[in-house]
Amino acid sequence: MRLGAITLVSRNWNYNLGALLIPYALQRILEKFRVDVSLIDFTPSANKLSRQAIVTLKHKGISYLLTRAIKRSLTYLDNKFNAKMELEVQRKEKILQFKNSQLNFTKESFGSYRRLLDHDFKFDAYIVASDIVWNPRKPKPDLEAYLLGFVKNGKKISYASSVGERIPKDLHPIYKEHLSTFDHLSVREKSSAKYLAECLNFEPKVVLDPTLLLTREEWEKLCKEPKNPPEKPYILVYDLYRSNEIVPRVLNIARKLELEVICYNYRTGEKYKLPNFYTSDPFEFCWYIKNAEYVVTTSFHGTALSVLFEIPFYSIDPNIWSCRITDFLEMISLEDRFVRDPASIDYLSFESIDFSEAKEKIEEKREESVHFLRNALGV
After folding, report:
1. Spatial separation of the C-alpha atoms in residues 117 and 125, rounded to whole Å
2. What pLDDT does residue 199 have?
3. What pLDDT, on a 0 to 100 scale, did the predictor assign at position 86?
4. Cα(25)–Cα(31) distance, rounded to whole angstroms?
5. pTM for the complete prediction?
6. What pLDDT was estimated at residue 84?
7. Domain Polysaccharide pyruvyl transferase spans what residues (predicted)?
8. 49, 68, 187, 192: which has the fewest C-beta neighbours closer than 10 Å?
9. Architecture of domain 217-309+313-351 in this structure
10. For residues 201 and 259, what is the distance between their CA atoms, to the nearest angstrom?
């Protein structure tokens, strides 16, 4: 079987470490089923500007972009800014290497829904896979792309897709029109199932995120030690939203526990003179989580990997699409690890966690999820 998969990652768009693990894990599990899978290289129209900037950066260099920025804004650019630009280039080049070596994209690239519609795909089936692919705030053409509106022939499958928030009533017809043509429909969170039920009059099946279909042992084999690994035990802070609220509080805890703090956000790291893992690739990211004493994160995948590796953690409310985390933690009976207010970190107990029930529930849900995929694909 030849399968076309569309995710929130393309060759030149999306450098989020957690998001990158989704297509990788999906490929791995589908290869076990002997399915020939290709990732459709689609960049949503809303992200073309950032993609173009990355391509320009790669081919014309930092000096070109800096010169253009000076001409446009007449802003003084100091050495500090140049250093940050260098760091950004280093991060993106490293992730491009990961994409090129680990992800199997289609030869053709698609920068719009129209291009997808015009292309003559030859896949036997199509799958849209995981994360907030069906968010109602997306521009209509991008939303329709992820609703597989471009597919003319072949089976349509949704695996662990997410909506993220309630769908406005005026958009119900779009969702209903496209999703009614799917052969197999599943979502990642019970909240997404609830929101879609308001459009479809039935609740799609809830399955695991693709990253959780691989076992702890499989991820451990993929972990890659960074060139300069930490020398001391550490608390890892993986945050994309609230570092200025989280890091100083974690620092206070770390001092009491005689631990180092390593953060993802390089600006916050610079402010507090902390090491960061901003330029890590996805396998190094896994290594940092696996080897942490504790993890504090606002990320779904930071949470999921902490659970898989059985690392004591707290998930802080990211203030956006929090249901991704809360629904998962409720499913595995670890909802007490979710923290609404970063100020509460001051009063948290950083101790070990009993993961036995969570492990059992993930294994059970993994079986269900794999069964759903096999049945959907007919393999």
Report:
1. 16
2. 95
3. 86
4. 10
5. 0.90
6. 74
7. 16-318
8. 49
9. 3-Layer(aba) Sandwich (3.40)
10. 51
Q: Are both 2-47+102-213+364-377 and 217-309+313-351 of the same fold?
A: yes
Residue 293 · residue 259 · CB < 8 Å: yes
Contact (Cβ atoms closer than 8 angstroms) between residue 373 and residue 365: no
Low-confidence stretches of the chain (pLDDT < 50) are 49-56, 74-77
Considering the domain delimited by 2-47+102-213+364-377, tell me its CATH architecture.
3-Layer(aba) Sandwich (3.40)
**CA atoms of 286 and 304, how far apart (whole Å):** 11
Looking at the DSSP assignment, which residues form a beta bridge with residue 242? none
DSSP state of 171: G
Structure tokens at 163: 């909506």
Report domain extents, the chain.
2-47+102-213+364-377, 217-309+313-351
Q: Do 66 and 85 meet the contact criterion of CB atoms below 8 Å apart?
A: yes
Can you tell me which residue has the tokens 């080049």? 93
Of 25, 23, 2, the closest CA to residue 11 belongs to 23
